[in-house]
Design brief:
The structure holds 2 protein chains of 2 kinds. Chain A is mainly alpha-helical. Chain A has 2 domains: 50 residues, no CATH class; 230 residues, MetI-like (MetI-like fold, Orthogonal Bundle), CATH 1.10.3720. Chain A has 14 helices and 4 strands. Chain A has a two-stranded antiparallel sheet with strand order 1-2. In chain A, a hairpin with a 5-residue loop joins strand 3 and strand 4. The mean pLDDT of chain B is 86. Chain B is globular. By secondary structure, chain B is mostly helical. Chain B is 76% helix and 0% strand. Chain B has 2 domains: 58 residues, no CATH class; 207 residues, MetI-like fold (Orthogonal Bundle). The chains are: A mainly alpha, B mainly alpha. At the A-B interface, helix 1, helix 2, helix 3, helix 6 and helix 7 of A face helix 1, helix 4, helix 5, helix 6 and helix 7 of B.
Protein backbone atom coordinates (compact mmCIF):
# COMPACT_ATOMS: atom_id res chain seq x y z
CA UNK A 1 0.00 0.00 0.00
CA UNK A 2 2.67 2.41 1.13
CA UNK A 3 4.95 2.17 -1.90
CA UNK A 4 1.97 1.89 -4.20
CA UNK A 5 0.53 5.08 -2.79
CA UNK A 6 3.81 6.97 -3.12
CA UNK A 7 3.56 6.78 -6.89
CA UNK A 8 0.32 8.74 -6.65
CA UNK A 9 1.97 11.70 -4.91
CA UNK A 10 1.51 14.10 -7.86
CA UNK A 11 -2.26 13.64 -7.77
CA UNK A 12 -2.82 13.41 -4.02
CA UNK A 13 -0.22 15.90 -2.84
CA UNK A 14 0.24 18.05 -5.94
CA UNK A 15 -2.77 20.39 -5.98
CA UNK A 16 -2.66 21.26 -2.27
CA UNK A 17 1.09 21.66 -2.31
CA UNK A 18 1.13 23.97 -5.34
CA UNK A 19 -1.64 26.13 -3.84
CA UNK A 20 0.11 26.09 -0.46
CA UNK A 21 3.30 27.39 -2.08
CA UNK A 22 1.37 30.15 -3.89
CA UNK A 23 -0.86 31.06 -0.96
CA UNK A 24 1.53 30.63 1.94
CA UNK A 25 5.15 29.47 1.54
CA UNK A 26 6.28 31.93 -1.12
CA UNK A 27 4.43 34.99 0.29
CA UNK A 28 5.77 34.16 3.75
CA UNK A 29 9.42 33.89 2.67
CA UNK A 30 9.11 36.87 0.37
CA UNK A 31 7.57 38.82 3.25
CA UNK A 32 10.49 38.00 5.53
CA UNK A 33 12.91 39.14 2.81
CA UNK A 34 11.01 42.39 2.12
CA UNK A 35 11.05 43.29 5.81
CA UNK A 36 14.76 44.01 5.30
CA UNK A 37 14.14 46.16 2.24
CA UNK A 38 12.87 49.58 1.27
CA UNK A 39 10.28 49.29 -1.51
CA UNK A 40 7.20 50.80 -3.12
CA UNK A 41 6.42 47.79 -5.29
CA UNK A 42 7.96 44.34 -5.10
CA UNK A 43 10.19 45.13 -8.11
CA UNK A 44 12.18 48.02 -6.63
CA UNK A 45 13.29 46.54 -3.30
CA UNK A 46 16.65 47.70 -1.94
CA UNK A 47 18.30 46.04 1.04
CA UNK A 48 18.39 48.22 4.17
CA UNK A 49 19.24 45.69 6.87
CA UNK A 50 17.50 46.18 10.19
CA UNK A 51 16.45 49.78 9.47
CA UNK A 52 12.77 48.89 9.08
CA UNK A 53 12.76 47.10 12.42
CA UNK A 54 14.37 50.05 14.15
CA UNK A 55 11.82 52.39 12.57
CA UNK A 56 8.95 50.08 13.50
CA UNK A 57 9.99 49.85 17.14
CA UNK A 58 10.47 53.61 17.43
CA UNK A 59 7.04 54.33 15.89
CA UNK A 60 4.81 55.57 18.77
CA UNK A 61 1.64 54.41 17.01
CA UNK A 62 3.00 50.85 16.78
CA UNK A 63 4.04 50.80 20.42
CA UNK A 64 0.67 52.21 21.44
CA UNK A 65 -1.21 49.63 19.36
CA UNK A 66 0.85 46.90 21.02
CA UNK A 67 -0.20 47.97 24.52
CA UNK A 68 -3.78 48.52 23.43
CA UNK A 69 -3.87 45.03 21.90
CA UNK A 70 -2.23 43.43 24.93
CA UNK A 71 -4.67 45.07 27.35
CA UNK A 72 -7.66 44.24 25.17
CA UNK A 73 -6.51 40.63 24.83
CA UNK A 74 -6.01 40.20 28.58
CA UNK A 75 -9.46 41.61 29.40
CA UNK A 76 -11.33 39.80 26.64
CA UNK A 77 -9.68 36.41 27.23
CA UNK A 78 -10.65 36.51 30.90
CA UNK A 79 -14.16 37.88 30.26
CA UNK A 80 -15.02 35.52 27.39
CA UNK A 81 -13.73 32.41 29.12
CA UNK A 82 -15.26 33.19 32.52
CA UNK A 83 -18.66 33.92 30.96
CA UNK A 84 -18.52 30.93 28.60
CA UNK A 85 -17.55 28.59 31.41
CA UNK A 86 -20.30 29.89 33.70
CA UNK A 87 -22.92 29.59 30.96
CA UNK A 88 -21.74 26.09 30.05
CA UNK A 89 -21.88 25.05 33.69
CA UNK A 90 -25.42 26.37 34.05
CA UNK A 91 -26.59 24.87 30.77
CA UNK A 92 -25.37 21.40 31.70
CA UNK A 93 -27.38 21.69 34.93
CA UNK A 94 -31.10 21.97 35.43
CA UNK A 95 -32.24 24.50 32.90
CA UNK A 96 -35.28 24.05 30.76
CA UNK A 97 -34.90 24.68 27.02
CA UNK A 98 -31.13 24.49 27.07
CA UNK A 99 -30.99 23.72 23.35
CA UNK A 100 -32.76 26.97 22.56
CA UNK A 101 -30.32 28.92 24.71
CA UNK A 102 -27.39 27.14 23.12
CA UNK A 103 -28.70 28.04 19.67
CA UNK A 104 -29.21 31.69 20.59
CA UNK A 105 -25.84 32.15 22.30
CA UNK A 106 -23.96 30.56 19.44
CA UNK A 107 -25.63 32.50 16.65
CA UNK A 108 -23.54 35.77 16.67
CA UNK A 109 -20.56 33.67 15.69
CA UNK A 110 -21.81 33.18 12.20
CA UNK A 111 -21.92 36.89 11.47
CA UNK A 112 -18.74 38.34 10.02
CA UNK A 113 -16.57 40.86 11.84
CA UNK A 114 -17.31 43.78 9.50
CA UNK A 115 -21.08 43.43 9.84
CA UNK A 116 -20.80 42.87 13.61
CA UNK A 117 -18.75 46.03 13.92
CA UNK A 118 -21.38 48.17 12.20
CA UNK A 119 -24.25 46.63 14.15
CA UNK A 120 -22.54 47.48 17.44
CA UNK A 121 -21.49 50.90 16.23
CA UNK A 122 -25.17 51.72 15.80
CA UNK A 123 -26.03 50.33 19.23
CA UNK A 124 -23.22 52.08 21.12
CA UNK A 125 -23.75 55.39 19.37
CA UNK A 126 -27.47 55.13 20.10
CA UNK A 127 -26.76 54.66 23.80
CA UNK A 128 -23.96 57.24 24.02
CA UNK A 129 -26.07 59.84 22.23
CA UNK A 130 -28.18 60.03 25.40
CA UNK A 131 -25.08 61.29 27.19
CA UNK A 132 -24.18 63.73 24.44
CA UNK A 133 -21.14 61.80 23.25
CA UNK A 134 -20.15 59.20 20.65
CA UNK A 135 -18.09 56.05 20.27
CA UNK A 136 -15.20 57.63 18.39
CA UNK A 137 -14.75 60.52 20.82
CA UNK A 138 -13.01 58.65 23.61
CA UNK A 139 -10.65 55.68 23.56
CA UNK A 140 -12.28 54.04 26.58
CA UNK A 141 -15.60 53.75 24.73
CA UNK A 142 -13.85 52.04 21.84
CA UNK A 143 -11.98 49.73 24.19
CA UNK A 144 -15.00 48.56 26.17
CA UNK A 145 -17.06 48.50 23.00
CA UNK A 146 -14.64 46.02 21.51
CA UNK A 147 -14.66 43.94 24.68
CA UNK A 148 -18.48 43.78 24.69
CA UNK A 149 -18.55 42.94 20.99
CA UNK A 150 -15.96 40.21 21.49
CA UNK A 151 -17.93 38.69 24.38
CA UNK A 152 -21.14 38.80 22.38
CA UNK A 153 -19.48 37.04 19.48
CA UNK A 154 -17.21 34.54 21.23
CA UNK A 155 -18.99 33.41 24.39
CA UNK A 156 -21.32 31.09 22.44
CA UNK A 157 -18.48 29.42 20.59
CA UNK A 158 -16.40 28.79 23.69
CA UNK A 159 -19.52 27.68 25.56
CA UNK A 160 -19.97 24.85 23.03
CA UNK A 161 -16.43 23.64 23.67
CA UNK A 162 -16.85 23.87 27.45
CA UNK A 163 -20.15 21.98 27.29
CA UNK A 164 -18.40 19.18 25.38
CA UNK A 165 -15.70 19.11 28.05
CA UNK A 166 -18.16 19.12 30.95
CA UNK A 167 -20.23 16.30 29.46
CA UNK A 168 -17.17 14.09 29.21
CA UNK A 169 -16.45 14.20 32.96
CA UNK A 170 -17.47 10.79 34.38
CA UNK A 171 -20.38 11.07 36.86
CA UNK A 172 -18.65 8.56 39.14
CA UNK A 173 -15.93 11.12 39.92
CA UNK A 174 -18.50 13.51 41.38
CA UNK A 175 -20.16 10.74 43.35
CA UNK A 176 -16.86 9.59 44.80
CA UNK A 177 -15.93 13.14 45.77
CA UNK A 178 -19.35 13.73 47.33
CA UNK A 179 -19.04 10.58 49.41
CA UNK A 180 -15.70 11.91 50.62
CA UNK A 181 -17.62 14.98 51.81
CA UNK A 182 -16.51 17.52 49.22
CA UNK A 183 -18.43 20.80 49.14
CA UNK A 184 -19.80 22.23 45.89
CA UNK A 185 -16.92 24.66 45.64
CA UNK A 186 -14.41 21.87 46.21
CA UNK A 187 -16.15 19.78 43.54
CA UNK A 188 -15.78 22.62 41.07
CA UNK A 189 -12.18 23.36 41.96
CA UNK A 190 -10.81 19.88 42.40
CA UNK A 191 -12.91 17.80 40.02
CA UNK A 192 -14.52 19.91 37.31
CA UNK A 193 -11.71 22.34 36.51
CA UNK A 194 -8.91 19.76 36.29
CA UNK A 195 -11.11 17.46 34.21
CA UNK A 196 -12.06 20.14 31.67
CA UNK A 197 -8.50 21.44 31.42
CA UNK A 198 -8.22 20.29 27.76
CA UNK A 199 -11.22 22.51 26.94
CA UNK A 200 -9.65 25.38 28.85
CA UNK A 201 -6.44 24.90 26.84
CA UNK A 202 -8.32 25.07 23.54
CA UNK A 203 -10.55 27.99 24.52
CA UNK A 204 -7.74 30.15 25.89
CA UNK A 205 -5.73 29.35 22.77
CA UNK A 206 -8.57 30.34 20.45
CA UNK A 207 -9.52 33.52 22.35
CA UNK A 208 -5.90 34.56 22.90
CA UNK A 209 -4.82 34.27 19.28
CA UNK A 210 -8.21 35.49 18.04
CA UNK A 211 -8.12 38.65 20.17
CA UNK A 212 -4.51 39.34 19.33
CA UNK A 213 -5.11 39.04 15.59
CA UNK A 214 -8.43 40.91 15.61
CA UNK A 215 -8.87 43.12 12.55
CA UNK A 216 -12.35 43.28 10.98
CA UNK A 217 -14.18 44.21 14.18
CA UNK A 218 -11.60 46.86 15.00
CA UNK A 219 -11.80 48.36 11.51
CA UNK A 220 -15.59 48.48 11.45
CA UNK A 221 -16.31 49.56 15.04
CA UNK A 222 -13.94 52.52 15.48
CA UNK A 223 -11.38 52.27 12.68
CA UNK A 224 -8.82 53.28 15.33
CA UNK A 225 -10.48 56.60 16.24
CA UNK A 226 -9.94 58.87 18.08
CA UNK A 227 -6.61 59.95 16.63
CA UNK A 228 -4.31 62.32 18.49
CA UNK A 229 -1.05 63.92 17.53
CA UNK A 230 1.68 62.07 19.38
CA UNK A 231 5.31 62.86 20.10
CA UNK A 232 7.21 64.00 17.04
CA UNK A 233 4.05 65.12 15.29
CA UNK A 234 2.92 61.71 14.05
CA UNK A 235 -0.66 60.55 14.51
CA UNK A 236 -1.46 57.94 17.12
CA UNK A 237 -4.84 56.26 16.84
CA UNK A 238 -5.99 55.48 20.34
CA UNK A 239 -8.09 52.37 19.59
CA UNK A 240 -5.96 50.94 16.82
CA UNK A 241 -4.91 47.33 17.33
CA UNK A 242 -1.72 45.75 15.96
CA UNK A 243 -3.28 44.22 12.84
CA UNK A 244 -4.94 47.50 11.88
CA UNK A 245 -1.75 49.44 12.60
CA UNK A 246 0.17 47.16 10.22
CA UNK A 247 -2.54 47.53 7.60
CA UNK A 248 -2.44 51.32 7.86
CA UNK A 249 1.34 51.34 7.64
CA UNK A 250 1.04 49.47 4.34
CA UNK A 251 -1.93 51.16 2.75
CA UNK A 252 -2.60 54.33 4.73
CA UNK A 253 -1.42 57.84 3.82
CA UNK A 254 2.38 58.16 3.72
CA UNK A 255 2.67 54.41 3.51
CA UNK A 256 6.01 52.84 4.38
CA UNK A 257 5.74 49.27 3.18
CA UNK A 258 9.12 48.06 4.36
CA UNK A 259 8.31 49.24 7.87
CA UNK A 260 4.85 47.65 7.58
CA UNK A 261 6.40 44.34 6.59
CA UNK A 262 8.87 44.55 9.49
CA UNK A 263 5.95 45.19 11.87
CA UNK A 264 4.17 42.17 10.38
CA UNK A 265 7.17 39.94 11.05
CA UNK A 266 7.33 41.19 14.65
CA UNK A 267 3.59 40.61 14.94
CA UNK A 268 3.97 37.04 13.65
CA UNK A 269 6.81 36.29 16.09
CA UNK A 270 4.71 37.68 18.92
CA UNK A 271 1.65 35.59 18.03
CA UNK A 272 3.75 32.45 17.60
CA UNK A 273 5.50 33.05 20.91
CA UNK A 274 2.25 33.65 22.81
CA UNK A 275 0.58 30.60 21.26
CA UNK A 276 3.54 28.37 22.08
CA UNK A 277 3.90 29.65 25.62
CA UNK A 278 0.17 29.37 26.36
CA UNK A 279 -0.07 25.80 25.03
CA UNK A 280 2.87 24.69 27.16
CA UNK A 281 1.51 26.43 30.23
CA UNK A 282 -2.03 24.99 30.15
CA UNK A 283 -0.97 21.58 28.78
CA UNK A 284 1.08 21.04 31.92
CA UNK A 285 -2.10 21.37 33.95
CA UNK A 286 -4.05 18.73 32.07
CA UNK A 287 -4.66 15.52 33.98
CA UNK A 288 -4.91 12.01 32.65
CA UNK A 289 -7.11 9.43 34.31
CA UNK B 1 -37.79 21.13 38.07
CA UNK B 2 -36.28 22.72 41.13
CA UNK B 3 -36.68 26.32 42.19
CA UNK B 4 -33.09 27.09 41.27
CA UNK B 5 -33.59 25.58 37.82
CA UNK B 6 -36.56 27.86 37.31
CA UNK B 7 -34.57 30.93 38.35
CA UNK B 8 -31.83 30.06 35.88
CA UNK B 9 -34.33 29.52 33.10
CA UNK B 10 -35.76 32.99 33.68
CA UNK B 11 -32.25 34.48 33.82
CA UNK B 12 -31.22 32.83 30.57
CA UNK B 13 -34.43 33.91 28.88
CA UNK B 14 -33.56 37.50 29.76
CA UNK B 15 -29.98 37.11 28.51
CA UNK B 16 -31.31 35.59 25.29
CA UNK B 17 -33.42 38.67 24.72
CA UNK B 18 -30.34 40.86 25.22
CA UNK B 19 -28.48 38.61 22.78
CA UNK B 20 -31.02 38.92 20.01
CA UNK B 21 -31.65 42.61 20.64
CA UNK B 22 -28.84 44.04 18.42
CA UNK B 23 -30.19 42.10 15.45
CA UNK B 24 -33.71 43.26 16.29
CA UNK B 25 -32.50 46.87 16.29
CA UNK B 26 -31.12 46.40 12.77
CA UNK B 27 -34.38 44.80 11.64
CA UNK B 28 -36.48 47.62 13.08
CA UNK B 29 -34.24 50.34 11.69
CA UNK B 30 -34.24 48.82 8.23
CA UNK B 31 -37.91 49.87 8.00
CA UNK B 32 -37.31 53.38 9.30
CA UNK B 33 -36.59 56.66 7.64
CA UNK B 34 -32.85 57.51 7.74
CA UNK B 35 -33.27 60.64 9.87
CA UNK B 36 -35.33 58.65 12.38
CA UNK B 37 -32.51 56.08 12.64
CA UNK B 38 -29.91 58.60 13.75
CA UNK B 39 -32.35 60.52 15.99
CA UNK B 40 -33.91 57.58 17.84
CA UNK B 41 -32.18 54.32 16.88
CA UNK B 42 -34.05 52.20 19.43
CA UNK B 43 -37.58 53.44 18.75
CA UNK B 44 -40.10 51.38 16.84
CA UNK B 45 -41.22 52.87 13.54
CA UNK B 46 -44.36 55.00 13.78
CA UNK B 47 -46.58 56.53 11.12
CA UNK B 48 -44.07 59.28 10.48
CA UNK B 49 -40.81 57.37 10.53
CA UNK B 50 -42.01 54.18 8.81
CA UNK B 51 -40.29 53.95 5.45
CA UNK B 52 -41.81 50.73 4.14
CA UNK B 53 -39.53 48.91 1.76
CA UNK B 54 -37.82 52.08 0.61
CA UNK B 55 -34.49 51.20 2.30
CA UNK B 56 -34.48 47.78 0.67
CA UNK B 57 -35.25 49.20 -2.76
CA UNK B 58 -32.55 51.88 -2.47
CA UNK B 59 -30.15 49.32 -0.99
CA UNK B 60 -30.40 47.07 -4.03
CA UNK B 61 -28.40 49.51 -6.14
CA UNK B 62 -26.78 51.59 -3.39
CA UNK B 63 -23.20 52.68 -4.00
CA UNK B 64 -23.64 52.23 -7.77
CA UNK B 65 -23.30 48.49 -7.37
CA UNK B 66 -26.13 45.96 -7.59
CA UNK B 67 -26.37 44.08 -4.30
CA UNK B 68 -27.36 40.80 -5.95
CA UNK B 69 -23.89 40.73 -7.56
CA UNK B 70 -22.25 40.82 -4.13
CA UNK B 71 -24.39 37.92 -2.97
CA UNK B 72 -23.56 36.03 -6.15
CA UNK B 73 -19.80 36.59 -5.86
CA UNK B 74 -19.77 35.71 -2.16
CA UNK B 75 -21.65 32.52 -3.02
CA UNK B 76 -19.38 31.57 -5.94
CA UNK B 77 -16.20 32.17 -3.94
CA UNK B 78 -17.42 30.31 -0.86
CA UNK B 79 -18.82 27.28 -2.69
CA UNK B 80 -15.87 26.85 -5.06
CA UNK B 81 -13.27 27.39 -2.34
CA UNK B 82 -14.85 25.02 0.16
CA UNK B 83 -15.33 22.31 -2.49
CA UNK B 84 -11.72 22.67 -3.61
CA UNK B 85 -10.41 22.64 -0.05
CA UNK B 86 -12.40 19.53 0.90
CA UNK B 87 -11.33 17.56 -2.16
CA UNK B 88 -7.65 18.51 -2.26
CA UNK B 89 -6.76 18.67 1.42
CA UNK B 90 -8.49 15.39 2.31
CA UNK B 91 -6.46 13.63 -0.41
CA UNK B 92 -3.33 15.36 0.78
CA UNK B 93 -4.01 14.49 4.42
CA UNK B 94 -4.69 10.82 3.67
CA UNK B 95 -1.43 10.65 1.75
CA UNK B 96 0.53 12.35 4.54
CA UNK B 97 -0.97 10.10 7.20
CA UNK B 98 -0.39 6.85 5.30
CA UNK B 99 3.02 7.45 3.75
CA UNK B 100 5.64 7.24 6.43
CA UNK B 101 8.71 9.27 5.52
CA UNK B 102 10.67 12.14 6.97
CA UNK B 103 9.37 14.50 4.29
CA UNK B 104 5.72 13.65 4.89
CA UNK B 105 6.19 14.47 8.58
CA UNK B 106 8.01 17.69 7.71
CA UNK B 107 5.23 18.73 5.32
CA UNK B 108 2.60 18.04 7.95
CA UNK B 109 4.47 20.23 10.44
CA UNK B 110 4.71 22.99 7.84
CA UNK B 111 0.93 22.90 7.41
CA UNK B 112 0.42 23.09 11.18
CA UNK B 113 2.89 25.98 11.38
CA UNK B 114 0.91 27.94 8.77
CA UNK B 115 -2.15 27.93 11.04
CA UNK B 116 -0.66 30.38 13.54
CA UNK B 117 0.73 32.85 10.98
CA UNK B 118 -1.39 36.03 11.01
CA UNK B 119 -2.73 37.16 7.66
CA UNK B 120 -0.94 40.53 7.94
CA UNK B 121 2.36 38.67 7.62
CA UNK B 122 1.59 37.65 4.05
CA UNK B 123 -1.11 40.10 2.98
CA UNK B 124 1.05 42.31 0.77
CA UNK B 125 3.15 39.63 -0.89
CA UNK B 126 0.15 37.32 -1.26
CA UNK B 127 -1.93 39.96 -3.04
CA UNK B 128 0.99 40.72 -5.38
CA UNK B 129 1.46 37.01 -6.13
CA UNK B 130 -2.27 36.66 -6.78
CA UNK B 131 -2.11 39.58 -9.22
CA UNK B 132 0.88 38.18 -11.09
CA UNK B 133 -0.70 34.74 -11.46
CA UNK B 134 -4.12 36.26 -12.27
CA UNK B 135 -5.74 34.56 -9.31
CA UNK B 136 -7.72 37.76 -8.78
CA UNK B 137 -11.22 36.80 -9.96
CA UNK B 138 -14.00 34.99 -8.07
CA UNK B 139 -13.30 31.94 -10.23
CA UNK B 140 -9.59 31.74 -9.48
CA UNK B 141 -9.38 33.10 -5.91
CA UNK B 142 -10.36 29.63 -4.56
CA UNK B 143 -6.78 28.56 -5.30
CA UNK B 144 -5.56 31.24 -2.89
CA UNK B 145 -8.06 30.06 -0.28
CA UNK B 146 -6.88 26.48 -0.80
CA UNK B 147 -3.32 27.60 -0.16
CA UNK B 148 -3.91 29.83 2.84
CA UNK B 149 -6.64 27.62 4.35
CA UNK B 150 -4.88 24.30 3.82
CA UNK B 151 -3.29 24.30 7.29
CA UNK B 152 -6.43 23.83 9.37
CA UNK B 153 -8.02 21.39 6.91
CA UNK B 154 -4.93 19.18 6.55
CA UNK B 155 -4.49 19.23 10.31
CA UNK B 156 -8.06 18.10 11.01
CA UNK B 157 -8.16 15.44 8.26
CA UNK B 158 -4.76 14.00 9.21
CA UNK B 159 -5.79 13.77 12.85
CA UNK B 160 -8.89 11.82 11.82
CA UNK B 161 -7.14 9.51 9.33
CA UNK B 162 -4.50 8.58 11.91
CA UNK B 163 -7.27 7.26 14.14
CA UNK B 164 -8.78 5.22 11.28
CA UNK B 165 -7.93 1.49 11.05
CA UNK B 166 -5.83 0.60 8.02
CA UNK B 167 -7.47 -2.79 7.62
CA UNK B 168 -10.33 -1.55 5.45
CA UNK B 169 -7.97 0.09 2.98
CA UNK B 170 -5.71 -2.95 2.94
CA UNK B 171 -8.67 -5.27 2.35
CA UNK B 172 -9.81 -3.09 -0.55
CA UNK B 173 -6.36 -3.13 -2.08
CA UNK B 174 -6.13 -6.96 -1.72
CA UNK B 175 -9.52 -7.17 -3.46
CA UNK B 176 -7.87 -5.44 -6.38
CA UNK B 177 -9.00 -1.86 -5.84
CA UNK B 178 -6.52 0.68 -7.15
CA UNK B 179 -5.44 3.65 -5.08
CA UNK B 180 -8.12 5.93 -6.53
CA UNK B 181 -10.94 3.46 -5.94
CA UNK B 182 -9.68 2.76 -2.43
CA UNK B 183 -9.69 6.48 -1.71
CA UNK B 184 -13.06 7.41 -3.18
CA UNK B 185 -14.81 4.13 -2.40
CA UNK B 186 -13.51 3.40 1.11
CA UNK B 187 -11.80 6.42 2.66
CA UNK B 188 -14.14 9.24 1.60
CA UNK B 189 -17.30 7.62 3.06
CA UNK B 190 -15.51 7.22 6.41
CA UNK B 191 -14.26 10.82 6.24
CA UNK B 192 -17.76 12.22 5.68
CA UNK B 193 -18.39 13.56 9.22
CA UNK B 194 -14.98 15.23 9.27
CA UNK B 195 -15.65 16.67 5.82
CA UNK B 196 -18.84 18.26 7.14
CA UNK B 197 -16.95 19.73 10.12
CA UNK B 198 -14.13 21.11 8.01
CA UNK B 199 -16.60 22.35 5.41
CA UNK B 200 -18.55 24.30 8.01
CA UNK B 201 -15.49 25.89 9.60
CA UNK B 202 -14.12 26.91 6.19
CA UNK B 203 -17.53 28.21 5.08
CA UNK B 204 -17.81 30.41 8.19
CA UNK B 205 -14.36 31.80 7.49
CA UNK B 206 -14.58 32.38 3.73
CA UNK B 207 -18.14 33.75 3.62
CA UNK B 208 -17.25 36.40 6.22
CA UNK B 209 -13.68 37.06 5.11
CA UNK B 210 -13.02 40.69 4.31
CA UNK B 211 -9.34 41.55 3.97
CA UNK B 212 -8.15 38.77 1.65
CA UNK B 213 -10.74 39.31 -1.10
CA UNK B 214 -10.52 43.08 -0.60
CA UNK B 215 -6.79 43.06 -1.34
CA UNK B 216 -6.93 40.48 -4.12
CA UNK B 217 -10.09 41.20 -6.12
CA UNK B 218 -10.68 44.19 -8.38
CA UNK B 219 -13.04 46.36 -6.32
CA UNK B 220 -14.72 48.00 -9.29
CA UNK B 221 -15.94 44.69 -10.63
CA UNK B 222 -16.07 42.20 -7.80
CA UNK B 223 -17.34 43.04 -4.33
CA UNK B 224 -18.23 40.33 -1.86
CA UNK B 225 -20.84 41.18 0.78
CA UNK B 226 -18.34 42.25 3.51
CA UNK B 227 -16.41 44.34 0.97
CA UNK B 228 -19.60 46.01 -0.23
CA UNK B 229 -20.78 46.86 3.28
CA UNK B 230 -17.39 48.21 4.31
CA UNK B 231 -17.24 50.26 1.10
CA UNK B 232 -20.67 51.81 1.70
CA UNK B 233 -19.80 52.77 5.25
CA UNK B 234 -16.36 54.02 4.38
CA UNK B 235 -17.18 56.30 1.50
CA UNK B 236 -20.79 57.21 2.05
CA UNK B 237 -20.50 57.82 5.78
CA UNK B 238 -23.88 58.39 7.33
CA UNK B 239 -25.46 59.46 4.04
CA UNK B 240 -28.01 56.67 3.82
CA UNK B 241 -27.89 54.61 6.99
CA UNK B 242 -31.34 53.22 6.18
CA UNK B 243 -30.10 51.47 3.06
CA UNK B 244 -27.09 50.19 4.99
CA UNK B 245 -29.38 48.74 7.67
CA UNK B 246 -31.40 46.96 4.99
CA UNK B 247 -28.25 45.50 3.43
CA UNK B 248 -26.85 44.40 6.79
CA UNK B 249 -30.08 42.57 7.45
CA UNK B 250 -30.08 40.98 4.00
CA UNK B 251 -26.48 39.86 4.48
CA UNK B 252 -27.34 38.16 7.78
CA UNK B 253 -30.37 36.38 6.29
CA UNK B 254 -28.51 33.64 4.34
CA UNK B 255 -26.43 32.90 7.45
CA UNK B 256 -29.54 32.52 9.60
CA UNK B 257 -31.09 30.13 7.06
CA UNK B 258 -27.84 28.16 6.83
CA UNK B 259 -27.65 28.03 10.62
CA UNK B 260 -31.13 26.68 11.12
CA UNK B 261 -30.74 24.15 8.32
CA UNK B 262 -27.41 22.79 9.53
CA UNK B 263 -27.38 23.66 13.23
CA UNK B 264 -26.53 20.17 14.47
CA UNK B 265 -23.61 19.88 12.06
CA UNK B 266 -22.36 23.37 12.85
CA UNK B 267 -22.19 22.72 16.58
CA UNK B 268 -20.54 19.34 15.99
CA UNK B 269 -18.15 20.97 13.57
CA UNK B 270 -17.09 23.49 16.18
CA UNK B 271 -16.54 20.72 18.71
CA UNK B 272 -14.48 18.70 16.23
CA UNK B 273 -12.47 21.80 15.30
CA UNK B 274 -11.73 22.36 18.97
CA UNK B 275 -9.39 19.37 19.17
CA UNK B 276 -6.85 21.53 17.37
CA UNK B 277 -4.13 23.24 19.33
Amino acid sequence: MNSNLRRWAPLFLGPTLVAFCIGFVYPFLHGVYLSFCRFITTGDATWVGFNNYIEALSDPSFVHSFWFTALFTAVSVIAVNALAFAVALALTGQVRGRNIFRTVFFSPNLIGGIVLGYIWQLIFNGILANFGTALVLEAKYGFWGLVILMCWQQVGYMMIIYIAGLQSVPKSLYEAARIDGASRWQLLRNVTVPMVMPSITVCTFLTLTGSFKLFDQNLALTGGAPGVVGEGGSMVYRTEMLALNIYNTFYGPGSARGVGQAKAVLFFILVAFIAFWQLRYTRKREVQL
Amino acid sequence: MSKKGFGLTVLFSLISVVYVWPIAVVLINSFKDKTAISDAPFALPNGESFAGLRNYIVGMTFGNYPFYKSVLYSLIITVLSVALILLCTSMCAWFLARVEAWWSRALYLLFVFSMIVPFQMVMYTLSKTADTLELNTPWTIPIIYLGFGAGLAVFMFTGFVKGMPRELEEAASIDGCGVLRTYFGVVVPILRPTMISVGILETMWIWNDYLLPYLVLDMGEYRTIPIHIQYLNGSYGQSDIGAIMALILLSILPIVIFYFAAQKHIIEGVMAGAVKG
